[in-house]
């Protein structure tokens, strides 16, 4: 869903932007290794600990620590995390000396933590300690307005990394990207753009540079693309208005049915109709 992108945006647009931005994936390691990853360890703390290691908290001191999939933490690790947040101190695994930390925490999860609290698998006190500002991030298929901006972001990133010229996305290709449902969310979109930048032969990313499941949507397309040079914002607006109008006509102007065809909420359809001045004939 782009959780890390949002976390990075918060960090690099805030007062801690000069500090480090550190990511800890709470689902990628066994719990005993995760404690070492978060809090660090002393030399000889366990078999294989041949040297002192700084944990994510220390590495992020003065900046932001992004805890991804925090709902996967064991209750024991949750207790240590809560103590670290409350006391602003940690102890490395195998250590006895408290280490002061100053770090902002951004946490993310796909789990329903309120339900986890009721079921006893997530600590209530930790939940309320973390839940200061809540940002609900819907799947990409429910916020397709973000796709053009994300495409532009990934184009710049991977064009720069590959050392090539900045590529562009024609309106016809953008149409395909906007109509795809993105079951893999933002990460899938990122992978598609990276592949197209690396493998594409021209300066434009065409339908043939996209995966087959997205190319197939072109067979269903009946959109008439306007000619002329338009800004990305105007292109998206023109495309969006056309798609919404087509869906409304197909749904006989029943907004709920049109919303289902577009994969968005009825509220979004109403908002877009007002934005673009779309009215029933």
Automatic annotation (TrEMBL):
The keyword Ribosomal protein does not apply. Keywords: Activator, ATP-binding, DNA-binding, Nucleotide-binding, Transcription, Transcription regulation. GO terms for molecular function: ATP binding; sequence-specific DNA binding. Gene3D superfamilies: 1.10.8.60, Homeodomain-like, P-loop containing nucleotide triphosphate hydrolases. Coiled coil: none annotated. CDD domains: AAA. It comes from the Bacteria. PROSITE patterns: SIGMA54_INTERACT_2 (PS00676), SIGMA54_INTERACT_3 (PS00688), SIGMA54_INTERACT_4 (PS50045). One of its GO terms (biological process) is regulation of DNA-templated transcription. Residues 1-198 form the Sigma-54 factor interaction domain. This is Sigma-54-dependent Fis family transcriptional regulator. It comes from Aerophobetes bacterium.
